[in-house]
Amino acid sequence: MSLKMKKAMTLCIAGILMISFVFAGCSKKKTEDTNAVETAAPADTGSEEADVTDAPDSTDESDYSNRSAEDLSLKDIYADRFMIGVAANSWQLQDKETMAAITKDFSSFTCENEMKPDYLLDYDATIAAEDGMPQIKVDTLNRIMTMAEDAGLKMRGHTLVWHSQTPKWLFCKDYDEDKGYVNKKTMLKRMESYIEKVITYCQENHPGVIYAWDVVNEAFSDDEEGGYRLDSPWYEIIGEEYVEKAFEFARKYADEDVKLFLNDYNATIPAKRDSIYAAAATLAEKGLLDGVGMQSHHDMKYISIGDIKGALFKYAQIPGIEIQLTELDLHNPDDSEGGLATQAEIYGDLFKMLVDMKDEGNANITSVTFWGLSDATTWLTANKNETSYPLLFDENMKAKPCYFAICDAATKE
Predict the structure, then answer these.
(1) 397 and 270: one domain?
(2) Domain boundaries, position 198
(3) pLDDT tier, 413 (very low <50, low <70, confident <90, very high otherwise)
(4) What is the DSSP-derived secondary structure letter of residue 398?
(5) Is 38 part of a structural domain of the chain?
(6) What is the CATH number of the domain that holds 360?
(7) Staple 393 to which of 218, 235, 356, 374, CB 3.0 to 4.6 Å?
């Protein structure tokens, strides 16, 4: 090979090597840029602070699969903040294992149905009454209160005045549904008589067991303009005055240490929230109301912790007011591992917020009651027309991930 050819080959090889280095460098730079985009912090979208969640590792405390609830007690964990309650039925209280489960975790008990007017009013006795006033049945009530008393459980009385689960005959002339409604004066007499009989029976026969009453339940409209529910027989006969009258009668007969609550659902919707607030503020100023009950039936798809917090702030503006979550559940149609993990996260976030609101003095939260003990007996399955898993225990009474999330929420990091 000639010298000229050797020089040409050397230059060619050098050029090829230089091009290879250039392309290698470009390839490396492109990969680094791509990784930078994938791992960069999200852009500011206007929120006060971006929440960044680290990828879970094998020791992640949110993995509740190996945890036991045997030595845990919700009522003890939250004892310094607020009471933890549960709604149940008399047949559940009669079962020793179920009662043991209730007393382990809960300090307060609410009758899911059996203290509502439908269950307490006695039609035959009412028709026969010489004074023409409504009469009540006390056998089941006495049995329930005795079981609660023996177990050391306090009770929320639910509920005295409600448009639903109240027999139509209570509002009618001669207690005959074919004769139309009575006048305002007669209805007010019937209201007072009923409230007096229920409260007096409970206090005289089981003193100190009932610590709070939902005096009026669901009095306000879901309409965009808010205001009172117009389709309630109480409203149709008496007008909006019926709410204040109910509290006047309840205050008249209740012991001084028994708290009186205005209870409603969708209590976070702005128009309804403001209507509840206005009524509650007036009643509290008159010394008739002690607290607002937020039922708190939520859906995993739509719950807003921010809206709940905003409502708590709103109601807390009423001087001296107590706030209770009275019927808490979280509709969840997904009992997969992922679905239960999401539910646990939401419940945990909710209780962290409640703890913060309480500890920082922003809201006087005095009780949280779960509307049911286990997924096996929840009302939501029928209400939603699909199987729901909204509560702390599964159908076998095994603690779900949300139980542990709520326990953990009581401990600030």
Answers:
(1) no
(2) 110-145+154-295
(3) low
(4) P
(5) no
(6) 3.20.20.80
(7) 374
Decide if 263 contacts 293 (C-beta within 8 A): yes
pTM of structure: 0.85
**Above 50 in pLDDT, residue 57?**
no
Domain count, the chain: 2
User: Got the DSSP string for 117-167?
Assistant: HHHHEEHHHHHH-TT---EE--HHHHHHHHHHHHHT-EEEEEEEEESSSS-
Is the separation of the CB atoms in 145 and 209 below 8 Å?
yes
Answer with the residue of higher pLDDT: 31 or 71. 71
Active-site hit among 112, 192, 322, 327 = 327
Give the domain-ending residue among 254, 270, 295: 295
pLDDT for 135-160, tens place per residue?
999 999 999 999 999 999 999 999 99
Regarding whether 258 and 127 lie in a shared domain, the answer is yes
Residue tagged active-site, from 218, 240, 256, 386: 218
The last residue of one of the domains, among 241, 266, 295, is: 295
Can you give the C-alpha Rg of the chain in angstroms? 30
Tell me whether residue 225 is one of the annotated catalytic residues. no
Amino acid 49: pLDDT:
32
Catalytic annotation present for 218 = yes
Q: Give the model confidence (pLDDT) of 81-106 as tens digits.
A: 999 999 999 999 999 999 999 999 99
